[in-house]
Amino acid sequence: MLALLQSDCLIVTSEEQVFETLSTWLKGQVEPFSEDEQLQMFGLVHLTLLSQDFRDSTVMAEPVFSTLRARNLLRAQFQAELLSGKKPTKRGNPPLEILSAEAHRQFLVWLERIY
């Protein structure tokens, strides 16, 4: 999942889709990830591409963001994105390949765990 989130080659209609997919995937794990691990993954979502309404209603409703520490980390990441001077780009640059062979193998391992 980290490799997919780190890739700007994901083809999605919106960054909201990335956030919702990650949230659903995390909730479906047999062994839950720690708060730090979840925050690391959510930190790979391009927050400045999310609408304010989505951040207020969906992001802040996620259980992992219920603690003050998590909200401060989220705020710090959002500010860092804004102050970096770099405008985040929408995901979906046409990839040369959708998944590398290694990512494909990892994906199959995850599917085996689910089923």
Radius of gyration: 15 Å
- Number of extended strands: 0
Q: List the helices and strands in order.
A: HHHHHH
- Strand content of the residues, in percent? under 5%
Describe this structure in words.
- With 115 residues, the chain is mainly alpha-helical.
- It has one domain.
- Helix content is 56%, strand content 0%.
- The protein has 6 helices and no strands.
- It has helices at residues 2-6, 15-27, 35-42, 52-59, 68-83, 101-114.
- The longest helix has 16 residues, at 68-83.
- It starts with a helix and ends with a helix.
Brief descriptors of the model:
115 residues, 6 helices, 0% strand, globular
In a few lines, what is going on in this structure?
This protein is mainly α and 115 residues long. The protein contains 6 helices and no strands.
How do the strands and helices of this protein lay out in sequence?
Elements: H1 2-6, H2 15-27, H3 35-42, H4 52-59, H5 68-83, H6 101-114
